[in-house]
Design brief:
The structure holds 2 protein chains of 2 kinds. By secondary structure, chain A is an all-alpha fold. Chain A contains 5 helices and 2 strands. Chain B has 5 helices and 3 strands, in the order βααβααβα. Chain B has a 3-stranded parallel sheet with strand order 1-2-3. In chain B, α3 crosses α4 and α3 crosses α5. The chains are: A mainly alpha, B mainly alpha. The interface between A and B is medium-sized, with 19 and 19 residues.
């Protein structure tokens, strides 16, 4: 069988570098090469290699599971952002129905509460839990302001002067939720 | 059960706003058709009235405020709070809100 070798200039270059390094190492008195390997050395090398592999795989696994947990928490916070964004759009067009408002606020609170529970389960980071609790309070405060307004034919009758104020609150809430995502990603202590 | 109200089942899964003229399933309607009578009956029979808030699409502040504020005005805040049990696993913070509405009634009347 014919064996075709495709040697490119790159391979030649690396082979040359390898040969030079071997020559230098062989002639340099700092290194002494012994052809005999003791059982102890072999054992030490094997144990060292095993520990290295074990630590490496554990670290990779930890980093990977932390990332998955963070992604799930961020997804819940993002869901809350989505609900608040819908409230914002409805208020902006002054077309927020009472039924939409109560249902959006309920689901927004539930998503954020779920994110809080996940943090408690995953790493119980006190600062992060406290931040989420604060934002959860803001969602409820906004809910209480909005769903206190009387509806006309099912649509909340928001006075024009209050629209700007409510839009400012929803924007501020959105910013707080965004900051939460950053905190989760950085996993503050 | 005489001393149990599940709002989603016994009244509506989509509770409305404060007054009857705000639309269907208002807090006023809930108070006058269910809550007042059930609470009165529970008191008479020396039972605790349990109110389950789970299973609805959510509550407007105006609905809860109207229903529980009026209950406290009619029966007294302490009597109400001692004789009701609120179940709200979906929105646990509503229990504190309701307590607030009950004691607000005492402060303003």
């Amino acid at each position: 069988m014919m064996l075709k070798l495709h040697i490119k200039w790159r391979d030649g270059f690396f082979l040359s570098i390898g040969a030079i390094c071997a020559t230098v190492a062989n002639n340099w008195s700092f290194f002494t090469f012994d052809k005999n390997i003791s059982v102890t050395d072999l054992f030490t090398a094997a144990i060292g290699g095993y520990i290295g592999l074990y630590v490496g795989s554990k670290l990779t696994s930890k980093v990977s599971s932390d990332r998955v947990e963070k992604d799930i928490i961020i997804a819940e916070i993002n869901a809350t952002r989505g609900f608040i964004a819908r409230v914002h759009t409805f208020i902006d067009s002054n077309n927020l129905s009472l039924s939409d408002a109560v249902s959006l606020f309920k689901t927004a609170s539930q998503s954020l509460s779920l994110a809080k529970e996940m943090v408690q389960i995953c790493n119980n980071n006190k600062n992060l839990i406290s931040e989420i609790t604060t934002v959860l309070g803001k969602v409820r405060d906004l809910n209480r302001v909005v769903t206190r307004i009387s509806p006309i034919n099912g649509i909340l009758n928001i006075p024009e002067t209050n629209i700007i104020q409510l839009l400012t609150l929803t924007r501020s809430l959105n910013k707080s939720l965004f900051n939460l995502i950053i905190l989760v990603n950085r996993d503050i202590d | 059960m005489e001393n149990f109200i599940k709002i989603a089942k016994d009244f509506s899964a989509t509770p409305g706003a404060r007054y009857r003229n705000d639309g269907r399933f208002s807090g006023e309607e809930f108070y006058e058709t269910i809550l007042q009578k059930k609470f009165e009956s529970a008191l008479k029979n020396k039972l605790n009235l349990t109110i389950d808030l789970d299973g609805t699409y959510g509550f407007a502040t105006s609905f809860l405020n109207e229903a529980f504020n009026r209950l406290a005005i009619d029966f007294g805040a302490d009597t109400v709070w001692k004789n009701i049990t609120i179940i709200s696993s979906e929105e646990p913070y509503l229990i504190e809100e309701i307590k607030e509405y009950i004691y607000d009634a005492q402060a303003t009347h």
